[in-house]
Amino acid sequence: MSLLTDAELGAVREVAKLGMVSDVTIYDHSVVETIDGSADAWVARSSPVKGWLHSTPTPTLAIMSGVQGVVNTYRLFLEVGTDITPGDRVMVGGAMFTVSDTTAESTWLPLLTASLRRIE
Hints:
By secondary structure, the chain is mostly beta strands. It has a single domain (6-118), classed as Protein of unknown function DUF3599 (Thrombin, subunit H, Beta Barrel), CATH 2.40.10. 10% of the residues lie in helices and 57% in strands.
């Protein structure tokens, strides 16, 4: 027995896509040879996908590397089936993030969620 029929889950996914209005460029990680050995490189995929970036500010100041700041939790909601994995990077609204984790392996997905870290 499932929570929703395939048709009902499809309808929920269509509603979830209504909030996905931001262009999201996904960058794949690769290692390139350099004169000094090798280096990380980030290669943008050919076309952006639509997504919905959500941030939950933490109401507490934290000290990181001697600098005070507010640590936010970022979630990126994407269409189910989007090819994104931990370690990829994404550009949303001019800001670059690293993908920490995704819900791609969940058994019930109304939308795909990626947990993000901000690169600063």
